[in-house]
Task: inverse folding
């Protein structure tokens, strides 16, 4: 695997889920794969889960790891082409990427959307520099438009919970598909669309009935919505849901703007009462009582902690595949 951005990069989802199960049962079983190999993990933005889970996954596989916070532990990087570099940015990304690549076998990059320039963000300009100029396998650790390690961990978590509840894995033809609803929820700051984009992309590829619900103006890019059912009526969308995934995102059409602060979209017990005793998911970090009430996130069907723990597993499957075949 040369890059990990989209669900298509992982191939067959049933195979990926079974591999995740094997890795989870024996997470140090492929330690020899990473001996004398190095992973460099680059952060342009803050992280808790991604930083720890990716590093842990690489270490499980026997790799050496180096983590670099750009601008704090390195020179500030200029990412625009054709600019006169007379400001506070001392180094250009065009030199930095091949220099970083000299010292590693795999690169992971976190580079959030600017939310100012739709074209630059949706072209993945920063991650694109690593993809084009590193010559090494590259993992998006939440780039401008996608967060595939999160979506893969979400899928693993849904499959595990579905199996625990019904005795059937996702895709079992002898049993019904789960209804998975992703609902927009309010947030005081404008957030990128990477998590909902990837969740939608992965759910559209998975054997689930996927519904997206959001206020008017929060439509995701059609490339990620694809065949999902879309509803502007949150309570109707939640009816009979087996899984509820809450997330805030800013507008795509009014790029990066907050169009609604409607707290009736905060997921509370009255929302969960409309569901089929749904499991609750969120990628974290979460703003309590903005996105979800304390009672729901602390309730018996909340999966947020096992979901975060599965970030180690999704990362390990991806890194393992890159070590096995870096082409
Ligand atoms: N879910 C997630 O990516 O968490 P961090 O931003 O803390 O890495």
Result:
């Amino acid at each position: 695997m040369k890059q990990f951005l989209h669900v298509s990069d992982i191939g067959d989802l049933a195979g990926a889920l079974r591999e995740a199960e094997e890795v989870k049962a024996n997470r140090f079983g492929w330690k020899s794969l990473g001996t004398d190999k190095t992973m460099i993990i680059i952060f342009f933005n803050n992280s808790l889960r991604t930083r720890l889970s990716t590093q842990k996954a690489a270490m499980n596989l026997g790799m050496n790891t180096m983590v670099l916070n750009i601008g704090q532990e390195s020179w500030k990087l200029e990412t625009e082409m054709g600019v006169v570099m007379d400001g506070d940015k001392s180094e250009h990304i065009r030199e930095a990427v091949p220099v970083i690549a000299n010292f590693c076998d795999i690169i992971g990059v976190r580079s959030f959307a600017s939310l100012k320039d739709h074209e630059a963000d949706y072209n993945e300009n920063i991650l694109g520099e690593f993809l084009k100029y590193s010559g090494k396998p590259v993992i998006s650790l939440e780039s401008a438009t996608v967060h595939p390690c999160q979506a893969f961990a979400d899928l693993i978590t849904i499959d595990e919970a579905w199996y625990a509840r019904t005795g059937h894995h996702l895709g079992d033809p002898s049993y019904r598909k789960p209804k998975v609803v992703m609902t927009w929820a309010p947030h005081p700051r404008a957030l990128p669309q990477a998590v909902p984009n990837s969740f939608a992309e992965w759910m559209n590829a998975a054997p689930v009935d996927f519904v997206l619900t959001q206020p008017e103006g929060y439509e995701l890019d059609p490339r990620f919505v694809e065949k999902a059912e879309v509803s502007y009526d949150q309570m109707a969308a939640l009816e009979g849901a087996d899984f509820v995934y809450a997330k805030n995102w800013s507008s795509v059409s009014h790029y990066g703007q907050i169009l609604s602060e409607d707290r009736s979209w905060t997921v509370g017990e009255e929302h969960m009462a409309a569901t089929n005793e749904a499991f609750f998911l969120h990628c974290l970090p979460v703003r309590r009582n903005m996105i979800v009430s304390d009672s729901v996130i602390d309730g018996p069907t909340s999966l947020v902690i096992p979901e975060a723990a599965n970030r180690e597993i999704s990362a390990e499957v991806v890194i393992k595949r890159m070590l096995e075949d870096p082409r």
